Amino acid sequence: MALAGKVAAVTAATDGIGLAVAAGLGRAGARLVLSSRRAEHVEAALARLRALGLEHVTGCVCHVGRAADREALVQKALDTYGGIDILVSNAATNPVMGSTLEAEEEVWEKIFQVNVTAAAMLIRLVVPHMEKRGGGSIVLVSSLAGYRPFPALGPYSVSKAALLGLVKALGPELRPLRIRVNGVAPGLIRTRFSRALWQDEPTLQRVMAAMGIDRPGTPEDVAGVVTFLCSPAAAYVTGETVVVAGGAASRL
Ligand code: NAP
Predict the structure, then answer these.
(1) What are the residues whose beta carbons fall under 8 Å from the beta carbon of 173, sequence distance 6 or more?
(2) Whole-prediction pTM
(3) Which residue, 29, 141, 190, 236, has most beta carbons within 10 Å?
(4) What is the spatial distance between Cα 60 and Cα 227, in angstroms, rounded to a whole number?
(5) Is 15 close to ligand 1, i.e. is its CB under 6 Å away?
């Protein structure tokens, strides 16, 4: 129960990696505020976590690209639990696949708004509340694609590289406030988001061979690392992104 008494807000927490992260933090004792764009997804995720025996779970709608929704998420944590100690910024979008240079300006703007700017704005909102608690922990979900751009996912990959930079920029800036900022960079994780890469066996085998991995990861593979980064066991770790990619090469 390394996170007993801590309050954690997680974005995009109703499926895949975010839901597993919420479950991992909850099992470690954290009180949870889940969020995603759709109210029915939030309700279903809350029911799943309660079925796991987690009692301190609540949630709200938060499309991270909307300022009012981001404020509502933070307010939900304050109203329900009186503060916030942990933020996992997990939401991302990828509206197109194809040539990097053929991606329209609106596509670049949308990807950067949701994947990068929204994360920075959410951090700006939570920092004063973490400061009041004497510190906190923030984890940004980046991607192996940030180190090694995935074919046909150019703008998305560049946005995930920007998150590596955001972790490096904020680590030192928030250190005086005792707020740690770290990231995880998942490789191929079997979720709805990545299904085009694993849904048929020949494609999966081709992708695994190209990445040099033996199996796709699970959301729980990522959740374990996020829970560690949020815990006192990682008290001396800040400004780092941990690659969770089954051994795939990951140099920038
Ligand atoms: P997923 O299983 O498809 O789940 C996506 C979640 O995001 C859902 O809860 C969805 O709920 C929510 N969501 C989507 N857009 C949102 C928005 N604008 N604001 C708030 N919530 C939003 O996806 P995943 O694979 O777990 O991906 C989670 C993160 O891991 C992303 O940052 C992704 O880039 C990263 N990642 C994934 C992989 C992989 O192989 N799966 C690899 C590297 C990195 P609603 O529909 O209700 O909004």
Answers:
(1) none
(2) 0.99
(3) 141
(4) 22
(5) yes
Beta strands at 57-61 and 31-36: parallel, antiparallel or unpaired = parallel
Burial class from Cβ neighbours inside 10 Å (0-12, 13-18, 19+) for residue 218 reads middle
Mean of pLDDT values over 201-225: 97
What is the residue with the minimal CA distance to atom 41 of ligand 1?
189
Q: Are 171 and 186 in contact (CB under 8 A)?
A: no
Greatest alpha-carbon span in the chain: 52
Q: Is any ligand 1 atom within 6 A of the Cβ of residue 157?
A: no
Nearest to 16 by CA among 69, 87, 91: 91
Distance CA 34, CA 11 (A): 6
**Which one of 70, 158, 164, 191 would you pick to mutate in the ligand 1 pocket, going by the greatest count of ligand atoms within 8 A of its CB?**
191
Q: Which residue has the tokens 């951090």?
A: 123
81 counts as catalytic: no
Question: Is 185 within 8 Å of 142 (Cβ atoms)?
Answer: yes
What is the set of domains in the chain, with CATH numbers? 7-189+220-244 (3.40.50.720)
Ligand 1 center to 245 CA (angstroms): 17
